[in-house]
Amino acid sequence: MPEQETTPRLAGYLDKQQPELYATLTHYSQQLVDEADRIGIPRRTLELINYLCSQINGCAFCLDLHHRRALKYGETEQRLSLVAVYREVPLFEPSEVVAMKMAEQITRMSSSRPSAELFAEARGHYSEEQISVICMAAIGINAFNRLSILSEHPVRAAKK
Description:
The protein is an all-alpha fold. It is built from 8 helices and no strands.
């Protein structure tokens, strides 16, 4: 079993060390949500993207946060527990599946790029404007995942 690191990677949280840069990232996130609302991408779909990317990246803090947010927007515990195997279960709408496929491929771009076929599939469910927002959502959560992982943001026990 590998040894646990005892020394933090950084002297503090990146968001606290660079508050103006972090504010820019949070502003990006809010603009993205506003645009998604404007063009008709459901918040549940955005949270599925956030949740899946956070799983792939191993970001405990973001998984916890987006689990709670997804529930707030009407997501179910069952579907959240099966996001990692979204392709194998019939519980997700075809539009949600393609959004998660896009988010997954964007997150894993170092090993494979999103294909032309995937974008063609996405066009069967989304407008070009919606596809671009889905891509930007995946890019945004990947940035937050990296920030939280590097900062070692803690997951706190839920309040009862």
